Amino acid sequence: MNFLIEHLDAFLEAAYTGARHYGIDLSRHRLDHVCWRCPTADDYLKAYRAALESGFAHLDTSPVSGRPVGIFCFPDEIYLRPERPVQLLEVTAPKPGQTFAEGYEHLAFLSPALHTLVADHPQIAWDTCQLENEVNPFVAFQTGGISVEFHVFDLQHILDTACY
pTM of the predicted model, to two decimals? Predict the structure, then answer.
């Protein structure tokens, strides 16, 4: 089994459990994408190749914040599964001057009403610095080292409108 798929379920379980602790049922939101962070350029190439070799469909690679970001569609057995389906995988190389541990770092759900979501959950320490972002507004919170994000637009829309 490919490491990108092997670690997916434990990552999702940790995120869903952490969100329940804050009173958010993530199963009520559509999961758009998950992000695999790579600590080095070599690790990025390894993850990129692993995605291709495991049947992920490559959709796009674009420079974002000074480093390449690859976007892939999960194989049908992951994307179409009834429990916790996920469509897209984002594979990111490290930003210049920053280091990250390798592994899943965030997952993004869709929510058209970000202000309402934040207001309905005042117990959460929301990161709202991207709330007014014109391209893709989002809010996020941390749980157990995982960033749980809520976006207005799905990643495919961002790719289709060339705003990524």
Answer: 0.91
Q: What domains can be seen in the chain, in order of their start residue?
A: 1-110 (3.10.180.10), 113-142 (no CATH)
Which segments of 38-92 does DSSP mark as H helices, in order?
Answer: 41-53, 76-79
Best CA proximity match to 32, nearest among 93, 92, 73 = 73
Q: Determine how many CB atoms are found less than 10 A away from the CB of residue 121.
A: 15
Interatomic CA distance for residues 114 and 100, integer angstroms: 28
Specify the 3-state DSSP secondary structure of 62.
strand
Whole-Å CA distances, 106 to 33, 34, 65, 94: 9, 6, 17, 14
CA distance 17 to 35: 18
Q: Identify any residues that bridge with 139 across adjacent strands, giving them in sequence order.
A: 150
Count CB atoms within 10 A of the CB of residue 147.
16
Q: One digit per residue, pLDDT tens: the chain, 164 residues?
A: 588 888 998 999 999 999 999 999 999 999 999 999 999 999 999 999 999 998 999 999 988 888 899 999 988 877 666 677 788 999 999 988 888 889 999 999 999 999 999 999 999 999 999 999 888 899 999 999 999 999 999 988 888 786 54
